[in-house]
Amino acid sequence: MRRLLPRRVTGLLLAVGLLLTGCSASYRPTPLPSDPPGPRTPGSPPRPCTDPLRSYDPMPLPPAGSVPTNSSMGRVADRGRMIVGVSSDTLSMASREAGTGEITGFEIDLARAIAEVILGPGGKIEFRVVGPAEAQQQVETGELDLVIDQIGLSCTTWARAALSAPYLKTELRAITRPSVQFNPNTLGSTPTCVPAGTHSQELIRAKVPNPVLGRTWSDCLMRFQRGEVDVVVAPLPIAGGLARQDPYAKVSDAGLGEIQFAVMAPQRNVDMIRFVNAVLAQRVGSGEWQRSYDRWVRPYGGDGRPPTPTYGRS
Fold this sequence. Notes:
The protein contains 10 helices and 14 strands. It is of the alpha/beta class. It starts with about 25 loop residues before the first strand and ends in a 13-residue tail after the last helix.
């Protein structure tokens, strides 16, 4: 064991630059792909997935800045910074402040909490803005320690990565024009955009087998504004944030299914997920989860409470 001592209006176009934050974070831009990744590389077969909501038991949390040396967390501590894949265009979750360029939001609060326990107060975070599909690829190759970017709990994702207990539970909604009476039953015949590689795409496949695939949520909003699509499907807090940017957009009252978000790590790093689950439980118990939710998510997604975790994955 060892202790390491310390040291929102979002635009539709991503800015590039250094991100300086209260946690000494740095930012390196990463190009966004337009297509989801290919099939899983052959190798050892994935474990059967019967309950995607079930994650690994949380481990006892060490004091901040004091993590086991021979662990995934210890390797992050040795490097001196944590590398996290995030978005920068989702108001409420992770978006870039127009004046400072800083990325802030509910998911960023969570990233900082995890980094603080691993690295101690003032620990450095490198935020990498990645698309959903590329996030999967970079986790598999070990380029990212974690992805905190609206990753849905699904058997598809479990086959390629390790996932935490959910940190947010919400539902899918549709963004439409105020003059349109939205009918979920006719969604399949309506030009609909969803970002490629997201769990949202997977969830609406039965209703919309051939959606227009955007690179990001902002890309889908721009397609909506240009008249290329009539609907954008997104989780409620994201839909609320997108609609806030366009006076000619509204969020439907009808839900399109439940979705729960988890932190993603390389499949082999089960210890990191057990660690993240302990941080999540701590934030819920201390009230930090609720305070962060009320600040960032509630204005766009309404009232919310922490999701109930399910542990016992082996």
